[in-house]
Amino acid sequence: SLNNFLGQTNITSLNITGCNVPLVDDMNSFVGNCANLTSLIGTETLNMGSNLQKITTFAYNTKLTSLNLSGWDFTNVTNIGSALPSTLTTVTLNNVVDNRTEKTSDNGLRGFLNIGGLKTIVMDEFAMTDFSNLFLGVTKIKNDIVFPSNATNVSNCFNGCTGITHIHSNWKTTYDAMEDTTDCYLGCTGVT
Questions:
Q1: How far apart, in whole angstroms, are the C-alpha atoms of residue 107 and residue 183?
Q2: Model confidence over 175-189: pLDDT tens digits?
C-alpha cells in the first residue's frame, strides 16, 4: 500500500517524478484527503507495474483539475471506487494499458474514467490495441481519440458518449489488424 501523503492538508503541490513503485497493489490513500492539492506532477513517471488493484486515491482532492496517468497499467484494477475528484476536467492517458478481456463500468480504465467532471481525454501514444468498451457511457467527455493503425477492436468504444461534440477522422485511416468496429460511436448524439 502506498499512503505516504494521506491527509496532508498543507500540501498544495507535489512532484513525484521518478518514483519507482512496480510492486504497489493499493493506491487507495496515496494523496487521499489532501484537500488543498492543486498540482500533482510526475504521476506519469510512476512505474506502477501490473500489480495495481485498488485506486481511490484522488477522490477527495477537489482542487485538482488535471491529471497525467500515462503509462499506468489498469489490467488488474478491480477496485476503482470514487477514484477521481468531480473537479477533474482533463486526464492524459498516453501508453496506458488495460488488457482485460471484459471491461465493465466498475473496473479497469473505463471505471476509472466514468466521473462527472471529465471533459477532455488526451491519448496520443498507445500501448494497447483493444479499445472495446473503453469509454462506453462516459457521457461528459467532449472528444474522442485517434486510434492507432494497429488497433484490433473498437466496438462500443464511444457508445453512449453523448457529450462528444467532435470526432476525429478515424474512418480515413487504414487499420492493419482491425477485427471489430461494431457500434463504436453509437449514441454520440452531440456530434454536429
A1: 21
A2: 889 999 999 999 999
Q: Are 109 and 131 in contact (CB under 8 A)?
A: no
CA angle 128, 73, 177 (to 5 degrees): 10
Question: Grid coordinates standing for 152?
Answer: 484490433
Residue type present at position 92: T
- What are the percentages of helix, strand and coil residues in the chain, rounded to 5? 5, 15, 80
Q: What is the pLDDT of residues 21-46, one digit of tens each?
A: 666 666 655 666 677 877 776 666 66
Question: Amino acid identity of 131?
Answer: F
Distance, CA of 116 to CA of 100 (rounded, Å): 24
8 A C-beta contact, residue 36 and residue 62: no
| Residue 105 confidence (pLDDT) above 60 | no
The total of other beta-carbon atoms located within 10 Å of residue 80's CB is: 23
What are the beta bridge partners of residue 67?
91
Q: Lowest-confidence range among 12-16, 59-63, 89-93, 135-139?
A: 59-63
Residues in Cβ contact with 101 at an 8 Å cutoff, skipping those fewer than 6 apart: none
The whole-model pTM stands at 0.70
